[in-house]
Amino acid sequence: MFERRSLKWPITLGVIMIVLIVALTVGWILLAVSGLIEGQGAAPLYWTLLTVGTTFLGLVLVGVVMYLALSVKEINLNRRQSNFMDAVTHELKSPIASLKLYLQTLHRQNVSEEEQANFHRYMLEDVERLDNLINDLLDAAKFAKPAIDSEMEDLRLAELLPDWVDELRVRYRVPEQAVQVQVEPSVVRARPMDLALIFRNVIDNAFKYASDPARVEVVSRLEDGDRVVTLIKDNGAGIPRRMRQRIFQRFFRLGVELQREKPGTGLGLYIVDTLVRRMKGRVRVRDRDNGPGTIFEITLRGTGDSGADKAGP
After folding, report:
1. Can you say how many angstroms the Cα of residue 309 is from the centroid of all Cα atoms in its chain?
2. How far apart are CA 128 and CA 121, in angstroms?
3. Which residue, 217, 230, 151, is CA-closest to 186?
4. Is residue 53 located within the same domain as residue 173?
């Protein structure tokens, strides 16, 4: 999951820049000396050294820019990894502390049956939170492997999307009337796990970041015969325009990690974007037409068959 970058390229670039600087320094010294004796027939040497020195100076400047770009890239990666470690630490510590508190209370005090039932429900939610964290980490490590043709299936979104939406709606305790699902019959050829990761992550974010009371809408339609376009809409605070590309970077999350109220690791949308690209599709973010909120638009290549008359996978 963490990229192990080779140091060969930065070291090589640094050595080349040092050699160029030394050569440039020697060249300028020779140029100065040749300039002193220019009147004695050294003009060809003077202009040759001037040309070579100028070329070397240009190469050094290019190297400096490239080294600066590599440094900025590494700084951003380290910052995202730091955010990731903060998020994982928080995601592990919070449910474990909660579980410990409930178990100690059940062990040391006499509580009513109703309170026991509530404690068991809260503990189950904490266990599910830990399970989701572990699954995110495992998925991020697995999905990078290319799909095998034998793992591909014809999947019908009209049968899968409503189930995923309903499952996440129950998890976030959102009333049924607050969610709208409109899915036209369509077929996408993909690995079941990949398709589930794409839509479950985006729908989960819609419920997680929706305002109170939550309003979530999922619309999927077939366009141009072979394009399946799915819109996942929420009524949250929205995503600033300048951040809409960065949210798909690995470990990136808006705000300060330790001050967040919403759980997460910064891997979900990175997984979504990578899997969608692998499937020759596209995911983009835009504002809602009316009112606050965000729309995630996922476009995938369909099989050209609505699948309306076929059985489920």
Report:
1. 36
2. 11
3. 230
4. no
Q: What sections of the chain are H helices per DSSP?
A: 8-36, 43-108, 113-142, 157-171, 192-209, 268-278
Question: What is the Cα–Cα distance from 172 to 204, expressed in whole angstroms?
Answer: 9
- Segment 15-46, tens digit of pLDDT: 777 777 777 777 666 666 665 555 555 566 66
* Residue 308 forms part of a structural domain: no
Asked if the structure places residue 43 within a domain, the reply is: yes
Packing angle of the helix pair 268-278, 192-209 (nearest 10 deg):
140
Q: 126 pairs with which residues across the strands?
A: none
Give me the helix-helix angle, 8-36 and 43-108, nearest 10°.
150
Whole-structure pTM value:
0.61
Cis peptide before 213 (omega within 30 of 0): yes
What pLDDT digit, counting tens, does each position of 265-291 carry? 677 888 889 889 988 899 999 988 888
Task: Report how far residue 255's alpha carbon sits from residue 154's, in angstroms, rounded to the nearest whole number.
Answer: 39
